[in-house]
User: What shape does this take?
Amino acid sequence: MAALINVPPKAKRGDIIEIRTLTSHIMETGFRHTADGRLVPRDIITSFTCRYNGAEIFRADLFPAIAANPYLSFFTVAKESGKFEFEWIGDNGYSSTASAPITVE
Amino acid sequence: MRFWRTIMVVTLVATAPVLLASEITPAARRSGYTFMGPDTRAMQDDDTSNPGMLFVLDGETLWGKKAGSAGKACADCHGDARSSMKGVAAHYPAFDKALARPVTLDQRINLCRANHQQATPLPYESRDLLALSAFVAHQSRGVAISAGDDPQLKPFVEQGRDLFMQREGQLNLACSNCHDDNFDKRLAGAPITQAQPTGYPLYRLEWQTLGSLERRLRSCMNGVRAQAYDYGAPELVALELYLMSRARGLPMETPAVRP
Assistant: This one.
C-alpha cells in the first residue's frame, strides 16, 4: 500500500528531527453495519513501529477510533547516517513497510 | 386576457431581480480552501500530510499498468502524464463528439478503457477510478479552470445553470439559495461555501476517503431531501459543467482536503 514518509534528508548530529508518516488504510471499525444489518468485520492497523538502523525508536498501538489513512508524527535525535524502517501491522495479516534514508553530518 | 398578461408581467418583474442579484462576480469567487480552518489548510498544503496524495500515488502506478485485452497502459498512448495531462482536468467536463454531450473526467477515463484498452469500466467512486482521476487532475494543480469555453457546451452549461437555480426536495431549496445568496454564513456549525469545485476529486475528512464532485452533489441533494441523480446522469454532468464554468479562473487544487 502507498505510504508517504517525511524524514529530513540531512541533519546535524544531535539535532531533534520530526518524522511524519501517512499510510493508506480503510481502518474499518468493526462497529458499523451494512444496509441489510450485517456487521462489517473489523479491519484496522493494530501496530506501527519505526526502527533507526535496526533499533526500535518508536512504537504505537492503533485502535478502531483512529481515522482512515492514519497519520503519525514523532521526534527523534539524529545520531548517525543510515535508514529509518517503518512497519504497519494489522488485521487479516495486513503488513506494509517503508523506509527512508538520512545523512547525519 | 389582459388580466393574465398583467399577472405574468408582474410575476416576471417580481422574480427577475431575485434571480439576477444572486450570481457571484468573477472577482468575488473564492475557493472552499478560504473557508477552512488553519489545521485543515495545513493538511492540504503539505503533500506528506495530505491523504489525497496517497490516491495520487496509486493513480501513478495505475497509469503505467497495462489493462484490458488490448494490453495497453494509459502511459502507452499518453506518455508522461506530467506533460501530457497538464491542464487537462481544468477544462473538464469536456464535449465528446461521438456522444454529442459533455463527459466528466471519470467518464473519459472509462471511455478510454472501453475504446482503447478493451477493459471493463471502473465503477463510479471505486478506488481505482478515483486514484486515476486524482492523478490526472493533480497534473493541473495551479492551472486556472477554463471549463465550458467550448461553444458546443453552451446548451449544457445553461441546463446546469437552470438546475442550480431550481428549487427541489422536501426542503424546497435550490443550490443557489445557499451557495450564491448565503455563502460565508453558517449552516449549523459548518461554513457555507461558494461551491467552487476547485479540488476534485478531493479528500473529505467526513468521508475518510477521496470522493468525486458527483458524490458531493448527491449528498447535497440528500441534504435538501431531494431524489439524487444517479452517478453519470446527464443532469449531474450538466451541473458539474456549470459549476466548473462558474469557477472559471480559479486555480485547480487537486487533491484538495475539505472537512
